[in-house]
Design brief:
The protein is of the alpha/beta class. It has one domain: P-loop containing nucleotide triphosphate hydrolases (Rossmann fold, 3-Layer(aba) Sandwich), CATH 3.40.50.300. About 50% of the residues lie in helices and about 15% in strands. A five-stranded parallel sheet has the order 2-3-1-4-5. Bound molecules: shikimate-3-phosphate. Shikimate-3-phosphate (S3P) binds next to loops. Shikimate-3-phosphate binds next to loops.
Length: about 170
């Protein structure tokens, strides 16, 4: 099995969907952010504060490189900003099938509101989400599988991924 890599803006449901997808496929789910935090021994807000976004991105790429080298196919969930680095896109495309999750801005705001673990959304959440969505417009489009998550259950999203022709074609 090749890796299944989930990308998408914050609050599009990558982690929840990734866990359910891994259960369905009978493989492991690994979260890039969690591994970065584990390796650094510090939280994401702490990393952003002490090393800046640049420091976090360097760690993110380093851990991404390590994770995709694992032999067994796994579901890899990523942070929303992984697509801001072209090097990460290259790594992901070379390592498995990439699935992009999408949600309407209102849905995203609803899902991420009150979460203090996302430094890039500090301040006016609604304004931050809209600005970042604008800055990242098109960056998730390279994925061969696009899934709109609004109004769907986690299981529905999982089934939609598995039934997608691009997913079937890679015989994951
Ligand atoms: C980020 C998204 C976060 C995390 C970090 C930066 C981003 O992950 O990697 O706060 O730049 O969009 P989630 O998408 O899981 O919230």
């Amino acid at each position: 099995m090749r890796h299944v890599i989930l990308i998408g803006f914050m609050g599009t449901g990558k982690t929840t969907v990734g866990e359910a997808l891994a259960r369905r496929l009978g493989c492991r789910q690994v979260d890039l952010d969690e591994c970065v935090v584990e390796q650094a021994g510090r939280s994401i807000p702490d990393l952003f504060e002490t090393e800046g976004e640049e420091g976090f991105r360097l760690r993110e790429t380093q851990v991404l490189r390590e994770l995709v080298q694992r032999v067994d196919g796994q579901v890899l969930t990523t942070g929303g900003g992984v697509v801001t680095q072209p090097r990460n896109i290259e790594i992901m495309q070379a390592s498995g099938i990439v699935v992009a999750l999408f949600a309407r801005p209102e849905t995203i705001v609803e899902r991420v509101r009150g979460d203090a673990n996302r430094p890039l959304l500090a301040g006016d959440v609604e304004e931050r989400v809209r600005k970042l969505l604008q800055e990242r417009e098109g960056l998730y489009d390279f994925a061969p599988i696009h899934i709109q998550t609004d109004g769907k259950t986690v299981q529905e999203v999982v089934e939609e991924i598995i039934a997608h022709p691009a997913f079937v074609a890679t015989s994951v």
